[in-house]
Design brief:
single chain, 328 residues, alpha/beta, Rossmann fold, seven-stranded parallel sheet, three-stranded mixed sheet, 10 helices, 39% helix
Amino acid sequence: MTSYERILITGGTGFVGAHITLALRRAFADARIIVLARPDDAAHLPGFETMICDLTDEASVDRVVADVAPDLVVHLAGQASAGQAAKLVERTWRVNALASLFLGSAIMRHAPSAVMFFASSATVYGASFHDGVLSEDARLQPLDVYARSKVAAEYALSDLFRAEGRLVIARPVNHSGPGQRSNDFVLPSFAAQVAVIEAGRAEPCIKVGDLSRIRDFLDVRDVVDAYIQLIAIARDLPENVSIFNVSSGEGRSIRSLLDELQALSRKNFVIEVDPDRVRPSAVDIVSVVCESSKLRAATGWAPSHPIRETVAALLDERRAELNGGLAS
C-alpha cells in the first residue's frame, strides 16, 4: 500500500469531499491533510487544516502547491450538476477544465513525483451509451457542457502526466447518499418531496421527470471506498495515467428508485411528470451503465451498500431537517 505524507484535497467541503477527507484520515493516519477552500466558502471541516485558494486563479494555485509540496492531490472540486452546468457555461469551464489544468501544471512544476487523483464522470462516454454497457475503452462522445468540460480536464491532465508523475482518473456513475442535499439530483429531490409530504407541508404529489430512464447508481460510501483503494495502489499501477470506471454494472430505472422511496414513505402520494424536469432528448440517454472489471481486478473492490440503504439515509436526513435536526 502506498503511503503519503502531505495530502492536498480540492472540493473537500462538498458532498463527496466530506466523506473522502474522513476516509483519507483513516487510511493515512500520519499524513498532513490540507483541504482547499474557496475565498467565498464559509464551510470548513473541523479537525482538518484549511487553506484558501481560488482554483481558477493560476497564481493562487501555484502558491499553494509550491507551499505544500504534496505527494498526493485529490481533485474533487468543480461544477457537480449537469443542470447547473448548462446554465453557468463559462463558470463550468473555468472550474472543471481550467482549474484542473492550473492544478496539474502546478504539480508538474513543484511536486512532479506526486500522485494526482482526479474525479471525472461516466458522462464523458455520452452517446457511446447507445452501444450498451461500457468499459474504459469506449469512445468519449460527451453530450453536454458538464461532460465536455470533464473530457477537456481529462485530456489536459493526461498530457501533463504522460511522462512523469502518476495520474489516476476515476469515472464514477451516479452516486448519492448521506450528505447529498442538493435538489439538483434525482434522489435528494425525491427524498425532500417525500419528507415534506410526510410532514403535512405539501400536497401528496411527487413531481418527476422521465422515470423510464435506466441508470447505474452507487452509494457515495462505496464510491469513496473505491477512490481510497485506487489511491492506495496508485504508485503500483503499470502506467503513469490510469483510468477506472467506478460502477455497479447494473442498471435501475428511475421509477424503481422512486418505488423504494414509496415503500419507505409514511404517507401515500401520487406521481406527476413535470416538463421542466425532463431533459432534452438530444442530451438524454435511455440507459447509462458501466462495467468496472478493471477496478475490481486491480483492488478487489465491490459495492457493499444496497440502494435501499442509500435511499433510506437520504429520507432520514430530510426528515431530521424538517424536525429541527432531530431524527424522527
